[in-house]
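ARCHIVE CARD
Drawer: 12
Card no.: 0347
Subject: one protein chain, sequence and derived structure
Cross-reference: see card 0346
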Amino acid sequence: MNRRFTLLEVITATAMTAIAASVLFSVFYIGFRSRERTRRTLAPVDRATDVLRQLHRDLESAMPPTGILAGPFHGGKGGWEAGDVSYTTETVLAFHTVNQDALGGGHGIRRVKYVLVGSDRDYSLVRTITDDLLAPVVPSPLQEVVCKGVLSLDLAYFDGDQWDTSWDSTVRGDRLPAVVLVDITIRGSLEEQAAESGSEPIYRARRKLVVPAAAVF
């Protein structure tokens, strides 16, 4: 004997299916919202980590500012000039290194420079490198944006005795700083709406980076 569903049973089953689907939707929605919130919270941490990692790699292989292809080590705030390059940004760090990475892919000594570009609420930390310094015509620097959404970047330099907010190896006996203190503050969201409302998370990181080549002197 074939038993058919009554209209009431069909309506009841449909209602139960709709309720189950609604519950599942709520669970997934909460999960996705939590994941997005976690991602936004950790975003500035990841970007600050990338900045510190890149600075550490470059400073770890910084060249002493003497000898062939060697150049001065400059760091600090404000505008100043060094050779054929003028620096007029908020914070700048420039030196020579033997580091090799994906940007450019060249070998040997290169000139590295870090500058902050932008306005008060939209700074970007830009890294430029100049490879093949022995070429008849020095190539144009290659650029990469290391980090966006930088609210502040302060650098301090330790000479083995005291800290200073700027460093110029040309007036310090061609010496490198023993340690560079990096203090960076990054906003969590890169969206303009969040930046304007001030609701985005903010992350501050401080780290002391040793300059091994300073031990040569």
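Annotation on reverse: Residues 36-216 form one domain. The chain has one domain: 36-216.
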